[in-house]
Amino acid sequence: MVETLRRLAVLCVGFILLPDMSRAVSCEALEGISALSVSNFAQTPAAPDADAQCDVVRDLSGQRDFYCSWEYQFREQAAQDRFDALQLAITECFAGDLSVRNDPDVNHPDFYDLRQYRRGTLALSVSLKDKGDLQKTYVFLRIGQRPLE
């Protein structure tokens, strides 16, 4: 009985601490976008959810990435929830040979957090940025191909 109550308490605490999964991007969406990255996004993927503003962008090397943003009020909890849910979705959808790197501290006047994920040549990044002057917080998702490190 005590063990059952203990497991129930851990389950309840875990549920309370999980990010709002209504903000999660599906594995199907992430896998579909990632598959299109192999063609350097010859076809533009659909946004992973209705709230995302997305487009294909070109970096300095000519590589094309799929880039999405979500806008929130300054330091709104929903932004942190989205950031956490995207990280969870990536780690669950691409489990196995996925490596993660937290970006080192940067000189940013407000707040900035970046997680970079690699699986072979597939590169995914999720960032959370506060913009005090705009009184906005943004979450960004970027997916593309990179040479093996």
Mean pLDDT: 82
The level of helicity is: 25-40%
How large, in whole angstroms, is the Cα Rg?
17 Å
- Summed up, the domain count is 1
Q: Do you know the CATH topology?
A: Protein Transport Mog1p, Chain A
Q: Main sheet: which strands, in order across? A: 1-2-6-5-4-3
Specify the CATH class: Alpha Beta
Summarize the structure.
By secondary structure, this protein is an alpha+beta fold. The protein has helices at 2-17, 27-37, 77-93, and strands at 53-58, 64-73, 99-102, 111-119, 122-131, 136-145. A 6-stranded antiparallel beta sheet has the order 1-2-6-5-4-3.
Would you give an account of this structure?
The chain is α+β, with helices and mostly antiparallel strands and 149 residues long. It has a single domain (22-145), classed as 3-Layer(aba) Sandwich (Protein Transport Mog1p, Chain A), CATH 3.40.1000. It has 3 helices and 6 strands; from the N terminus they run ααββαββββ. Strands 1-2-6-5-4-3 form a 6-stranded antiparallel β-sheet. Mean pLDDT is 82; it is low at 1-22.
Draw up the topology in text.
Layout: H1 2-17, H2 27-37, E1 53-58, E2 64-73, H3 77-93, E3 99-102, E4 111-119, E5 122-131, E6 136-145
Antiparallel strand pairs: 1-2, 2-6, 3-4, 4-5, 5-6
